[in-house]
Amino acid sequence: MANHKENDYVFRFKASMRFNAMAEFHDRIIAQLGKPYHCHKKGDKMGSKIWDNDILIIRSPLSIEHSFDEHIEWFSNKLMPHMSFLSEIKEQSGGDIDLFLSYSTNCDTGGFALSANSLKILNEFASIGILPGGFSVMFY
Questions:
Q1: In the chain, how many domains are there?
Q2: Which domain range does residue 54 map to?
Q3: Per the domain annotation, does 1 fall within a domain?
Q4: Burial annotation 57-75 (CB, 10 A radius, 16+ → b, else e)
Q5: Does the global pTM surpass 0.70?
Q6: What is the mean pLDDT of each run of 10 residues along the chain (140 residues)?
């Protein structure tokens, strides 16, 4: 790890909601929730790559300087009014909806925490089967 002065430390947070194996619902998801960050269907081509899965990704528009708590709060405000819709498409499609969180830092002692409110929101998402899809943690 590079030797950094404390004020040179960088902490970056990203959050994305991923809709997996729900291609038949992409149009409805976009109509309800807005334009996705990324969307493809199984068999779509991207250069020489042919996708072997379906995915629609909504990324938090907050900058990378915002904490996980702020990104999760953004998703709460965006998705809570649509919980019955999300539950319905999840059940009908048999696909998965998850929240993927990514953290990177150049501080070898850096870490992150989630507030009680963020844990409550994640629990509300989990009540309809929206689970954390994982945490990506990168130190550089």
A1: 1
A2: 6-139
A3: no
A4: ebebebeeebbbbbbbbeb
A5: yes
A6: 64 95 95 94 88 93 96 96 95 93 89 93 92 76
